[in-house]
Amino acid sequence: MNWTELSILLLKAVAMIGVVMTLAGYSVVLERKVAAWVQGRPGPNRTAPPLLGNIPVVGRLLTRMGLFQLPADGLKFLFKEEPVPGHVKKFYYVLAPVMSFVPAIVIMTVMPFGQFIDSTGQVATLILTDLDIGILFILAVSSLGVYGIILAGWSANSKYPFLGGVRASAQMISYELAMGLSILPVFLWVGGTLSLTSVVEAQAGLQWWILPQWTIIYQPVSALIFLVALFAETNRLPFDMPESETDLVAGFNTEYGAFKFGLFFTGEYAHILLGSAVFVLLFLGGWTLPGLPVLAGVFGAVISVLIFLAKVLFMVFLFMWVRWTLPRFRYDQVMTLGWKRLLPLAVANLIFYTVIIAVIEQF
Q: Is 124 helix (H, G, I), strand (E, B) or coil?
């Protein structure tokens, strides 16, 4: 690889990190607006810079939408005083937010988000690194994020954070098995490949001129299991046992503030974004739409990225809608659902589709 190719790759990586970080930051604002919508109130609609907010139409519209809330919150987290409690294990206390945040950044390298077709008809996937085992890489790296939570709970040297870390580890183990088993039928259905690009290509077009070839239509149980496990893996309500403000104050977050707390916060929403992206790639056709031909050139590439982004944002909205609609489960209910409901259902689902695919291949 020469210096030009390396520079282009680095620019792509920086641009992708910038996009994901921006989306993760504004997901916090979107969360507050969705919460306000569910609860019948306006949400953040007053924060604005001294001059820009007074611009008659544009400034007031952006202010009411809450778009200036992110810079205000970001600067607050960045410049707040950041005391380190005397009783914590300092090295691991500082390392924990980084370990929680970094896996989300690493996952982006193997996440396809569109495609480009040149004038000769050659198709290139928009991705930093196209791995044939991309889904295994995503599952392996994303599971490392829980180590940041465990470290935060242990290094805080306090009861509530420690209980939050223990809950996070137990919850990850409980739902990781069901998540992995739920996606195996998907890859069997599309021909045995583990490439996410191939999965998206297999979902393009229409079946019988009516139905989209999206996997969620043919494997709804797999999609449901994966979605529930995704909620649990990202510690979102009704599965936010590691935080559980009603009985653990703030769980593993209790001893954190300022920039370190902001890293945990951004990492959580980055994981939600990337988890939603994986769901879109596996079950909702990725950057394709039924009946819409893939266009060539830069314009077609932009359209494919926008389609993919719209689906991802819909899934993010679903995460937020569920959070502000359903109450939190009890801890025993979370464990029961993972081991006694989802895991047997995932095994039965895998056996069923293995038999169905074997029968189909015979004919």
A: strand
109 neighbors 10 (Cβ within 8 angstroms): no
Average pLDDT, the chain: 86
- DSSP code, position 338: I
Residue 308 contacts residue 286 (beta carbons within 8 Å): yes
Nearest by Cα to 321 from 20, 36, 23, 22: 36
82 vs 21: CA distance, rounded Å: 22
d(CA 289, CA 307): 8
Highest mean pLDDT, choosing among 240-244, 268-272, 275-279, 292-296: 275-279
- For 318-323, what is the mean pLDDT? 92
Q: How many CA atoms lie within 13 A of 76 on its CB side?
A: 10
Q: Which residues contact 58 (CB under 8 A, 6 or more apart)?
A: none
The pLDDT tens digits for 110-136 are 888 888 888 777 888 888 888 888 888
- Residue 108: which of 275, 320, 317 has the closest Cα? 275
Q: What pairs with residue 124 in β-bridges?
A: 116
Instruction: Kindly tell me the sign of the dihedral angle through the C-alpha atoms of 42, 46, 47, 53.
Output: positive
